[in-house]
Structures are given as structure tokens and as C-alpha cells.
Amino acid sequence: MAMASTLHSDRQPDKLRSLGIVALNGMFDEMDAVGVMRQAVAEILPGDVAIVSSFGADSVVLLHIAAQVDPSLPIYFLETGKHFPETLAYVEQLKKQLGLINVTAIHPAPHDLARFDPDGDLWETDPDSCCHIRKTEPLEPITEQFGGWVTGRKRFQTKERGVLPHFELTSDDRIKINPLAYFNDADVAAYKAEHDLPEHPLYSHGYKSIGCAPCTSVVAEGEDPRAGRWRGLNKKECGIHYDFSGAIASPMNAADKYSLFKDGTFVADPFRVWDETMVAGEARYAHVPLPVFLENREAFLANPHPLGLLVSPGDRVEDAEADLGRFVSIAIKFPAFTDGRGYSTARLLTERYQYANELRAVGDILQDQIPLMRRCGINAFVITHKPTREALIENRLPEVNIFYQPVGTSEVPVGTRPYLRRAS
Which pLDDT score, from 0 to 100, does residue 232 have? Predict the structure, then answer.
């Protein structure tokens, strides 16, 4: 009981809490799944724990255990908008059959979908970002309300989960409970049979691990049950889970995953790098190199999809002056820290042509440059340099208040040296 109150009131990392989790795993290591769930709900985190369920192929086991312990436990279903219709029907079936009275569907934010996935096909090019928008982001404010939450993860599912314990301490010092950690495939099947639990409607059709429809496929005989998730991609997790070995990234820290810094934080980037296989009339969410745009101008202007423009040193942005408003983002390339031509391009775009959409810097971007880039109108940055990422996260960029070259009309001379300007 003391552990629960301490954990929930103070989120700062503490070695004693980590030792407490080790102690919990030692105490309940041999306990069955129902016992682990009951201890978590009644003794460790009374009134302070929730369940997150995908209502997938094996979810019925965890939900049946929850119904035995407390059918009023809050259960959250991530309604990503990409589920099979059969999954949505299964949710309603289990609610009724198991007597679950506190199931809530949580949805992705409409403004995130409008910005990053307006056509609903982000999963095709960037499944990590799709999972982040549709799962991780909606779940975060829910998990913040509880001191712990229950998952249905099992050791046998992936190599990364092979050391999964019953209890974990998350990166923000909540407790994650895994009652089924030691279950294997045979245990799951036996439990379902013993309690006459209904299978997911797609299970008999070869879907052994079921997530969102676009990223789930049939599993062949003898294949790993999770082989049908994100088939062909180096991806095994959606991002809402990570284990104590650190093999799976923390779901609460998007800065570790994303490189686009905008509006004070690292965010998922809907844009991809242009490649020669893209078609001018069909491309979307790519930064088109300026020469490619000029060569295929009519086709790009007729293209109804969102596009960006890539301006590299030596390109004449003046040649696209009449069409700049067609682009929702313009990327200015800085091939080297010492190459300052991009600053002039930024000033042309913002001061002369009044470009007001996203203006991003790409390339060799270091923390010393960012205050200067912002001064020229750049408002987004693609960051790959680790110390610069850390400086942005910690808000410790260098301060520069006096400049040799004035920008705009608001800067005034400093003292008797008119070539020095103070930023407004």
C-alpha cells in the first residue's frame, strides 16, 4: 500500500522504487495470472489501475481474468479507426458476455489526423508515425490518470518480450502489470477451452495476432503468431509498450523517435524524402526539389495532394515565386554548417515573398545555428545531431541578441555602431 501511494504521488526516478519492483516480482513470481491481477488491483494499486486492451486474438483471456477480479475495472480500447469490423463487433460481444461494465474507446485526435494522415494512408509509408498518432498520443493522457496499468503481453510473443516480468516500472515511474507474462501459446489455448471463451472472429481464418487491418496479415502454419504484424518491416511493437530491458522504446518520449522539431517539441513528420520513382501528378507529402518542380510544373500544380518544396544552395527560388503558395512546407537545405546561403533564401521567402507556411531547415543543423535560422523566419528543424537534440529538449540554446546584419525593419542600431543591430 505504501508503495502505491508513493509511486503515484512522485514521478521522479528513485532507486528504491526500482528495488520495490524487484521485490514484487520476487514475491509474486510463482503466482498465477488471476492472483497477480488480484494483488495489483486490491493491494498494490487499489483504485489506481486500468487495463489497455486491443480486443485482439488473445485479449479474451486477460479480460476474463479482469471480469473475475473486478468487472468494473476501467478498460480502454484504442479505437484507431483502422480496426477490422470483426474486431469492433468482438468488443461488443465480450462486453456483454463477460459482464464488463467500464469499457471506454479512445480515439486519435482529429487535428493530428488532419495534419499527418488526411488520406488515411500514413501506415503505408511510415507505420511508426501512424502508430504514434493513433495509439501512443491518445493513450498518454489516459495513463497519466493512473498509477499503473495492465497489459496482455507475454514472453513468448517476441524476442524483446523474452524477459518480461509480472511487474515493471515505466519511464515515468508507473507500474505496468503483465499477469500473462509467463503464458505460452498452449496456456492461452487451454485457458480459452477451460472457460469456453469465444475466439476472435478472424482467428479461424489464420489471423493469430490481430491489430489494425492494414498492418495485420494471415499467419501460415508453423509461423510465429506475430509474424503477421507489420509483415516485412523491422517493426515488432506499436510504441505503447517497452520492457525493463530497454529493448523497446519508452512510449512517453517522442523525441527519441522523431527528428522534426516544431512548436517547441519533436513531432511526427508527415513528409518523406523525394525519390525519382514518385510521379508528379500523384505524389504527396514529399519535398520536391526545385529543379524537378520547374521541369514538371503543370503536373505538380494539378496535383491535389499536399506537397513541399526543397530548395538547395544554387537554386533560384525566384523562379518559383508565383507558385510558392502551392506548398504547405518549404525545406531549405544546409549541406554544411559553414554554408550560409540558406539564410538568404529564408529571408527572400519570408520578407520579399511573404511565405507564411512551414519553413524548415534540413541538413547539417547544429544548435548554434538555430537562433540565427529562427531570426530569418525558419520555424521547423530536422535534427539528426544528438547534442543539438538534447539542447532543444532541455531548452538551452545559445542566446544571441546583437547581430552584424539587420533583419526586417524592427531592428535598431546599437550605440554609435550602426552596423550592429539588436534583435527585437
Answer: 60
**Cβ–Cβ under 8 Å, residues 239 and 246:** no
Match domain 258-422 to its CATH number in 3.30.1450, 3.20.20, 1.20.120, 1.10.12. Answer: 3.20.20
| Residue 376: active-site member | no
Average pLDDT, the chain: 82
Which member of 238, 268, 309, 407 is catalytic?
Answer: 238
What global pTM score does this model have? 0.55
- Other beta carbons within 10 angstroms of residue 370's beta carbon come to 20
SS3 273: strand
* Architecture label for domain 2-252: 3-Layer(aba) Sandwich (3.40)
**Low-confidence residues in the chain, pLDDT < 50:** 1-13, 15-16, 158-162, 241-256
One-letter amino acid at 188 equals V
The phi, psi pair for 53, rounded to 5°, reads: -130, 140
Q: Phi first, then psi: give them for residue 140, nearest 5 degrees.
A: -55, -50
Task: Report the binding-site residues for [4Fe-4S] cluster.
Answer: 130-131, 212, 215
What value does the CA radius of gyration of the chain take, rounded to a whole number of Å? 26
